[in-house]
Specification:
It contains 16 helices and 19 strands. Helix 4 packs parallel to helix 5, helix 5 packs parallel to helix 6 and helix 11 packs parallel to helix 12. The N and C termini lie close together (9 Å).
Length: 485
């Protein structure tokens, strides 16, 4: 069958070539795109030739080592059209990066984006990368996540970032063993580098005091940061007051993630004060696993009904329960609510809240993605959601119901939606007991000319070989459809 992707519930902590915490696969089109392939000598010779004429190259998980980096460095120095290079999840090491940097430093190199995530780098690599940053204004993105750079390494890296020649726009240092001491230099960079648009320092042991320092840089008039990721940084509600002040003062900040920090309802309340400020233009807010309860949902509901700029909200892994969901739905039904994507996986929801969600689907015409996996809504819940999904006002494109205690009994209703709503292009039903009976109902609807589904996820569902073959034939007959088993 066609290409296989992992289902939504497996996407929380994958290697860095996946987009983290959102369950979305990186699908950026590359001229040369090789992943998870062992490189023998003949294959490598073939690829070197291709790299010399490519604008974008990805060689992720290809068992590359320092010995390959000399050739890649040569490509960097000779191929003036190469703009993006992705080498994630290879054991390049510091010696390999040194060879890459020699190519990057040549005058003919015009590379703009460099991905070296999980490449076994240490602080020793940072002096070479510092030289690149201070001499190559063409480099606008540097992704170094999952490397043990440490406090000293990041300090050296920041020296390059502070150089007047550096025009870096995106810097990713997730899982790089930063310490609070690094935030002083990052604060200086935010104050002096108006080009910097995205900073990801998630999964580092920073704490509230370090975030306070960082916020001082964010508040500077020269700072134009648009996206800030602080997931799992050991911050509490105490940091939310500082972040709230930034939100209220900096309309440039449109994306904020503080997932996996136990800020709780008090922290959410503080953030919402900034979010409700007219100056705030937030578009994406990620609060997964933040200890939010129904009390926090009351504040978030007000944001949903007031902040028209907000298009994406993630509340994965919070104990919202049905009462919290009811409050969120009140905000979503407001005409001012313009949310397009809502992530409420594993939030303790049941059938009881489905009537309110169905009402949202029937009234909110902007909602495009609804991720409800890991909630025990059952067949009865799907029957209730069916009413909203079938409403002419519903424009939902992506519906994720993996691990929702579903059986074949609800597949008739889902089949009706598939054959009646051409806007629906993605459906996840993984980890449910649909069995042959339920999947056969879905197959009939997939054959309907009105069905425009592009991806159907049926991961971890027991099926007979007969039904499996039927799915294979169906996928081959519809080139635009991927069925993921």
């Amino acid at each position: 069958m066609g290409a296989r992707l992992l289902p939504s519930f497996c996407l929380r902590r994958l290697p860095c070539f996946w987009i983290r915490k959102r369950g979305l696969v990186s699908v950026f089109k590359m001229d040369l795109d090789i992943q998870c392939e062992e490189m023998n000598a003949s294959r490598w010779t073939e690829l070197k030739s291709s790299m010399n004429t490519s604008k974008t190259v990805r060689l992720d998980d290809c068992s590359l080592s320092a010995s390959h980096c000399k050739d890649i460095g040569s490509v960097l120095s000779s191929n003036q059209t190469l703009m993006e290079l992705t080498l994630n999840n290879n054991e390049l090491g510091d010696s390999g990066v040194e060879l890459l940097c020699k190519g990057l430093m040549t005058p003919s190199c015009n590379l703009q984006k460099l991905w070296l995530q999980n490449c076994n780098l240490t602080n020793a690599s940072c002096k070479h990368l510092r030289s690149v940053l201070s001499t190559k204004p063409t480099l606008t993105e540097l992704h170094l996540g999952d490397n043990k750079l440490g406090t000293s390494g990041v300090k050296v890296l920041c020296e390059g970032l502070m150089d007047p020649n550096c025009k870096l726009q995106k810097l990713q240092l997730e899982y790089c063993e930063l310490s609070p001491d690094n935030c002083e230099m990052l604060c200086s960079a935010l104050r002096t580098k108006p080009f910097l648009r995205m900073l990801n320092i998630s999964n580092n042991k920073l704490g509230d005091a370090a975030v306070k320092v960082l916020c001082q840089g964010l508040m500077d008039p020269n700072c134009n940061l648009q996206s800030l990721h602080l997931e799992n940084c050991r911050i509490t509600a105490a940091s939310c007051g500082d972040l709230s002040a930034v939100l209220a003062r900096k309309p440039s900040l449109t994306e904020l993630s503080v997932g996996e920090n136990k800020i709780g309802d008090p922290g959410v309340a503080l953030l919402c004060q900034g979010l409700l400020n007219p100056n705030c233009k937030i578009e994406k807010l990620w609060l997964w696993e933040c200890g939010v309860s129904p009390a926090g949902c009351k504040d978030l509901s007000q944001v949903l009904s007031t902040k028209e700029s907000l298009t994406e909200l993630s509340l994965i892994g919070n104990g919202l329960g049905d009462p919290g969901m009811e409050l969120l739905c009140q905000g979503l039904k407001d005409p001012k609510a313009k949310l397009q994507a809502l992530w409420i996986r594993e939030c303790g929801l049941t059938t009881a809240c489905c009537k309110s969600i169905s009402s949202v689907l029937a009234t909110n015409q902007t909602l495009r993605e609804l991720h409800m996996g890991g909630n025990k809504i059952g067949d009865a819940g799907v029957e209730i959601l069916h009413e909203g999904l079938m409403n002419p006002n519903c424009n939902l494109r992506s519906l994720w119901l993996g691990n929702c205690s579903l059986s074949a009994a609800c597949c008739g209703s889902l089949a009706t939606v598939l054959s009646s709503k051409p806007c629906l292009t993605e459906l996840d039903l993984s980890n449910n007991s649909l069995e042959d009976e339920g999947v056969k109902k879905l197959c009939e609807s997939l054959k309907h000319p009105n069905c425009k589904l592009q991806q159907l996820v049926l991961y971890d569902i027991y099926l007979s070989s007969e039904v499996d073959d039927e799915l294979k034939v169906l996928e081959e007959s519809k080139p635009g459809l991927k069925i993921i088993l």
